[in-house]
Amino acid sequence: MQETNEKTAAMIEHLAAVNKILEKYNCDESKLIPILQEVQEEYKYLSKDVISYVATSLDIPPAKVYGVATFYAHFALEPKGKYVFKLCDGTACHVKKSHSILHALYDRLGLSDDKQTTDDLMFTVETVSCLGACGLAPVMLVNEDVYGQVKPEEAVAIIDDILAKAAAAE
Ligand code: FES
Question: What topology does CATH give the domain 2-71?
Answer without folding.
Answer: Arc Repressor Mutant, subunit A (1.10.10)
